[in-house]
Amino acid sequence: MNKLQFKLLVGILLAIGLGVFSYKVSVLGFPLVPSEKTSAWNVEAHVAFDGKNSPVKVVLQTLNRVSGFAVTDEFFIGAGYGRQRVSQRITDEQITNEAYDQNSVVIWSKRLADGKQDLIYSAVLRPESAGEMPKWSPPQNIPELRDPQFSEAEAVAANALLSRIGKESADMESFVPLLMQELQHSEKNSNAAFLLRNAKNSRGVVNVAVRLLHLSGIPAQSVHGITLGTASDARISHWLELYQNDSWHMFNVAKGVFSTPVNFVPWWRGEAPLAELTGGKHLQVSLSVVPDAIDAMKNVVDRIAATHPTFFDYSLFSLPVQAQATYRVILLIPIGAILLVFLRNVVGFSTFGTFMPVLIALSFRETQLLWGVGLFSIVIALGLGVRLYLEHLKLLLVPRLACVLISVVLLMAGISVVCFKLGIPRGVSVSLFPMVIMSMTIERISVMWDELGAGKAIQQAVGTMAVSVLAYIVMTNSYVEHLFFVFPELFLVLLALTVMMGRYTGYRLLDLVRFRTFIRG
């Protein structure tokens, strides 16, 4: 492979790995820390009414397309009720204005309902980005002016009211507050009182204001929602969304000023009420918003499963829990492998086998480090004694290895029994050691002992153990395990680094120590 292909391969691997990693962190909101917490809100609407032993139907506005949030875990509770979920335009059916958003409603129905009735709608609001509260974002579509559908008498009163306010204002910023002031204090103006004769609450006042704004040439729509806080009881607040000079403006009806909503979640838009009842009486709707500190990782997984199902289906999180636990261990092997490559090719450690220290480190995950090192050393020492005895029998290689393997198994079983009888539970975990690997290690130590002497064999055995300990420290780090399970694309970065180290042919760090006299000369 020439230098151009080499650089191109490394560049592609780094670009893909880091690109996907950055997208998942910055856009999808995957946390970098395993113990990170985030906030979610449990929203519940409790609908109560009295049945009249007749057919009943309840229409309730539900959360839909909340900007900055993912709506998950929706539940509709109603014993004996049929349920259907539909979308409705916020304007009248006669108006075919597709520029307006749609609301989502649930319809509960029952053939006969008598006495106290309770229906519950609950959902969880999950922020799309951790660490900050989503801000209000304007609707994507631009509304058109529509006919306010005033009667002849209402049109006269509306024109008189708008004419008076128009003379007292200079622009939209002063016109809208004056209009809302007149409507909210209608007892001082007969025209406003006439227009509001059928308005029973603040929502009715807002709906009349929207019709007047359309009559005055300002596209507007009402938006009703809740404010996220720490209180369990929630109240619906009403805002006006106005479109003027190619931009959206939000008007706080309660305070009578233009402002940007803070912690405000739009529930529905338009003239419809929160709930409508047919066939019953004494309708009451109570809302509750309860914050909850949840695990950020679980929050992201649940949100991605709801908003990006295709992405979720082809990720490790779609696997069964048992398979996920298995891969959390398997994915640690390449991490130990690249550490081994660095320690061998750059630092200059000598080990028995290529990936033997990584497999030994994996066994240390179950036995813990100190017990693992101790038990491993005991088995190797005893097995080495058996191997040296077999040397006198002049056996061939394969039979000799089989004898060593049998001896290792017997030694491990014996150590487990003795430790169990002595009340040392950690000693039982010696059975988790890779038997074949240990047999090969004993064989290689013995061969090196015969060829290069005891000192060289012990030195390389210590190097193997040192690399295993370092690999264990890295592979048991919770942050490392979290990063490479949540972001498996980082293995492409590891692959690029491994390719780069594979082309390194310079001095190793330990060589600088070995040849320090030559370097000084």
From TrEMBL:
Annotated ranges, domain Inactive transglutaminase fused to 7 transmembrane helices: 23-198
InterPro entries hit by this protein: 7TM_transglut, Transglut_i_TM
Any Pfam family hit: 7TM_transglut
Record field: transmembrane: 325-342, 370-390, 402-424, 430-449, 461-480, 486-506
Keyword Cell wall biogenesis/degradation: no
Segments forming domain 7 transmembrane helices usually fused to an inactive transglutaminase: 273-518
Source organism superkingdom: Bacteria
Keywords: Membrane, Transmembrane, Transmembrane helix
The keyword Transmembrane helix is assigned to this record: yes
Protein name: Inactive transglutaminase family protein
Record lineage: Bacteria, Pseudomonadati, Thermodesulfobacteriota, Desulfovibrionia, Desulfovibrionales
